[in-house]
Specification:
CATH topology of the largest domain: D-Maltodextrin-Binding Protein, domain 2
CATH class of the largest domain: Alpha Beta
Order of helices and strands: HHEHEHEHEEHHEHHEHEHEEHHHHH
Shape: globular
Helix content: 40-55%
Length: about 425
């Protein structure tokens, strides 16, 4: 047994004091009122304040964001529109500058080579040939000639350079070969003619429709009563269609090419319509005139502006049977089975002549051959052609008459060339 010494007594006293303090604290902590006050007062108040601040922040975001986004979108749209307009205007100006460079080429002095025209075998092209040749010969000092033929072979001659100028390239009739030739750099368009034009495959006299009021569409040609109306003794019961001449581009539109099946097949008329070739444009016109004089039924192809259609009072007394609109065909090309659209009639030049006589580009670019011009010249030719030994002489005489009695063409030429032409006309007998 260990005895408490004097040295250890203070330690014992300290321990006893601590033990007494501990007992006293324990007794105080058992008081329930102190614990309740701490829990109820301190904790709930702090949590509630934090929640209120979070809600206020969310509301502020919802109000501010949409307004800023709307303003940004409006500004971006305005800037884009302005940029597009400015770019388009710049492109147009550049194109005009290029044209000015091409047309301001002076006519050189000295010998000039012969220029060959495509002698397409219908009146409007030959009338224009006569006038253009007279101006090129007497105004610009070139000898001229023409090679006669149909559309397809003459276009091949133009591509090869055997022909320098063709006054009528009918598009879309010649779309495929035309695009090929332009892409190959063989031909270029240098002007336009006959802008107020039309053509149709299925025309009938108004007196025929008056007697058959239900006949108004190509679809009606499948009915027996209308087939027999246009049938002839050698047509096997089919309606005879006096159509395009072999070699004309429109012939392919009617009977089909590699580009499309053609109007007759596309309309399902193979068993109902026989396409008949009259032989040339004169015989086609004669067949139509003859039927009208006798008031006989006839189904035919024709085009305008022409004196024949003017005399027959198209479109009042010549009726175009309904066909699908050109917009229903790819590229508005009637070879796929729709009506002919108004054509774009181009003046085409072989690129070899561009190098040899670039000054002629401005002349053909200024060419403006309206229906009024054509009908006046065509009318004079029809009334006077029998007074000449050859058709070429008759068309040259038509040119002299037209140039002597009209003024519009004078704006096509620069002053020095105009003076040359007027001097030549003054010497005509």
């Amino acid at each position: 047994m260990r005895l408490i010494t004097r040295k250890s007594a203070p330690v014992v006293l300290l321990l006893m004091a601590l033990l007494s303090a501990s007992i006293l604290m324990t007794a105080c902590s058992s008081d329930p009122e102190v614990v309740e006050k701490i829990v109820e007062v301190e904790v709930p108040v702090e949590v509630e304040k934090i929640v209120e601040k979070s809600v206020e922040v969310v509301k502020e975001v919802k109000v501010e964001v949409p307004v800023e986004v709307e303003k940004i979108v409006e500004k971006e749209i305005e800037k884009v529109v302005k940029e597009i307009v400015e770019v388009e205007v710049e492109k147009i100006v550049e194109t005009e500058k290029i044209v000015e460079v091409l047309v301001e080429v002076p006519v050189p002095e000295g010998p000039k080579r012969e220029i060959v025209f495509g002698g397409l075998n219908w009146d409007s092209a030959l009338v224009q040939n006569g006038i253009a040749r007279y101006i090129v010969e007497h105004g610009y000092g070139h000898e001229t000639s023409q090679i006669e033929g149909a559309t397809v072979p003459l276009f091949q001659g133009l591509r090869k350079g055997d022909i320098d100028i063709t006054m009528e390239i009918w598009l879309p009739n010649q779309n495929v070969v035309w695009n090929e030739a332009v892409k190959a750099g063989e031909v270029i368009p240098v002007g336009k003619s006959l802008e107020d034009n039309w053509q149709s495959t299925f025309l009938i006299p108004a007196y025929v429709q008056a007697a058959n009021p239900d006949l108004d569409s190509v679809e009606d040609l499948k009915e027996e009563q209308y087939k027999s109306l246009f049938a002839e003794a050698d047509s096997g019961g089919k309606a005879v269609l006096y159509g395009c001449i072999a070699g004309w581009a429109c012939r392919g539109v009617q009977e089909g090419t590699d580009a499309g099946v053609g109007q007759i097949a596309a309309y399902g008329l193979e068993d109902h319509v026989e396409l008949r070739d009259p032989g040339d444009s004169g015989l086609l016109a004669a067949a139509i005139e003859g039927a009208f004089k006798k008031e006989e039924p006839i189904l035919f192809y024709y085009w305008g502006p022409t004196k024949l259609m003017l005399d027959l009072e198209y479109p009042e007394k010549v009726i175009d049977l309904e066909q699908p609109d050109p917009s229903t065909c790819a590229n508005n090309d009637p070879v796929h089975g729709c009506a002919f659209p108004p054509a774009e009639v181009m003046i085409a030049m072989n690129t070899g002549l561009v190098e040899d006589a670039p000054y002629l580009i401005k002349f053909f670019n200024n060419w403006d051959w309206s229906a009024g011009n054509q009908l006046a010249a065509d009318g004079w030719y029809g009334a006077n052609s029998e007074n000449y030994d050859t058709a070429e002489e008759a068309f040259e005489a038509t040119a002299v008459w037209y140039l002597s009695n009209n003024d519009a063409w004078k704006s096509w030429l620069p002053d020095d060339i105009l003076e040359n032409v007027l001097g030549a006309l003054a010497n005509e007998g």
